[in-house]
Amino acid sequence: KKLTVAVVGATGAVGREMLKTLHERDFPATEIRAFASARSAGTKVPYGDKELTVQELKEDVFEGIDLAIFSAGGSTSQKFAPHAAKAGCVVVDNSAAWRMDDRCPLVVPEVNAHALEGHNGIIANPNCSTIQMLVVLKPLHDAVKIKRVVVSTYQAVSGTGQKGIEELERQVRDLFNGRDPECNTYPYRIAFNALPHIDVFLDNDYTKEEMKMVHETVKIFEDPSVKVTATCVRVPVFYCHAESVNIETEKKLTAKDARVMLSQAPGVRVVDNPRELMYPMPSYCVGEDETYVGRIREDETIENGLNLWIVADNVRKGAALNAVQIGEELIKRDLLRVTDKNVFLK
Ligand code: A2P
Ligand code: 11C
User: Fold this and answer.
1) What is the rounded radius of gyration, in angstroms, for the C-alpha atoms of the chain?
2) Strand pairing report for 50-53 and 4-8
3) What is the H or E stretch that residue 121 is in?
4) How far apart are CA 83 and CA 111, in angstroms?
5) Which of 45, 237, 246, 298 could pair covalently with 156 via S-S, beta carbons 3.0-4.6 A apart?
6) Could you say which ligand is closest to the alpha carbon of residue 14?
């Protein structure tokens, strides 16, 4: 059966990983098309051992495409996703543009795949730091009900895309060569530094990245009673976000039971053996599909609480892989169609 898939933003850090993931997982596409801005039209991007010629994204390109996976920034998604849906093409969007829109499911397949039922053509991929946290917290929430989450993140520069990766590389090279590093992407040097600032500051003095973790958790868990407070920090790591997560639960769960529960959870890998110095780290998790968790300890300051250390490849499970898994789930559930094509373009 014919199945045409498009990757929008195919020249970017996430777009390239999307093409790699589609190929590696044998996604049942009969044709793959790559789109980016006019700047890169005509250039090539790898797909397995072949290359695809990048086409310019325009409003009318979606005719005949069944699924488009977008990772080309919020404004591109805002503008083009409704045209895709109108043409009958289902969009899985990796930007923040549609996440909190009531018409769009926000999905982590291991957590809330059921939310795909009744989609209207645009499905949102959550923020990377939310995805990895919830893959781990979901089984705990189901078992002992999480009341409150306190999270601090250690986020890789690839979260900013290709330009974040280039900035860290260039600044490290400059510093080792005695040059003053220029700051183009972040307001301060990221090399050998830590910036408590990801995305823009909001009126409440939190950053937008921090508030994404708050609001997306409630939407994905379908549970407004879960309180989340976050501090998001950019660190000089290329790939993989790490998170220190403290949870307070309604019922008691020992660290030992949490380890057993998490070792059976879909998409989760427990690496937690302090005596052997075994714990997850970005260097350990690059290129991996699973979300890693370790340092599981009971919080000794409250009745029912746990501390966890969660690491995942932000470009993979945090973006490309989660989006491709949504595509797989849409096929499995026979949902790769747009019932009402006019929901987003009136
Ligand atoms: P291009 O390479 O042509 O600029 P990253 O997140 O790594 O910065 O990548 C962003 C991706 O989004 C790139 O593939 C980029 O394409 C694409 N992109 C940015 N703006 C647009 C646009 N207006 N239309 C289509 N693609 C865009
Ligand atoms: C980062 N989490 O690490 C961001 C990247 O809302 O999709 C993804 C931003 C978003 O910078």
Assistant:
1) 20
2) unpaired
3) none
4) 29
5) 237
6) 1
Residues 5 and 31: their CA atoms lie apart, in Å, by: 6
Contact 224, 218 (CB under 8 A): yes
This prediction's pTM? 0.97
Task: Quote helix, strand, coil % in the chain, to nearest 5.
Answer: 35, 25, 40
Query: Dihedral of the CA atoms 217, 219, 221, 225 (nearest 10)?
Result: 80
Does residue 232 have an active-site annotation? Answer: no
Q: Give DSSP secondary structure letters for 287-317.
A: T-SSEEEEEEEE-TTSSSEEEEEEEE-TTII
β-pairing, 67-70 with 268-270? unpaired
Confidence band for 1, pLDDT divided at 50, 70 and 90: confident
Decide if pLDDT at 261 tops 80: yes
The pLDDT tens digits for 122-171 are 999 999 999 999 999 999 999 999 999 999 999 999 999 999 999 999 99
- Residue of 83, 104, 241, 285 marked active site: 241
Q: Establish whether this prediction's ipTM goes over 0.95.
A: yes
Contact yes or no for 128/241 (Cβ under 8 A): yes
Q: Is 132 in the pocket of ligand 2 (CB under 6 A)?
A: no
Ligand 2: centre distance to CA 178 (Å): 32
> Would strands 227-234 and 146-155 be described as parallel, antiparallel, or unpaired?
parallel
Task: Give the CA dihedral 36, 41, 45, 51, nearest 10 degrees.
Answer: 130
Residues 192-205: tens digit of each pLDDT: 999 999 999 999 99
E strand intervals along the chain: 4-8, 31-36, 44-47, 50-53, 55-56, 67-70, 90-93, 122-124, 146-155, 227-234, 241-249, 268-270, 291-298, 305-312
Residue 111 host element (H or E): helix 109-112
Q: What separation in Å is there between the alpha carbon of 164 and the centre of ligand 1?
A: 14
- State if residue 164 touches ligand 2 by the CB under 6 angstroms criterion: no
Closest CA to ligand 2's atom 1: 159
Provide the β-strand partners of residue 233: 154
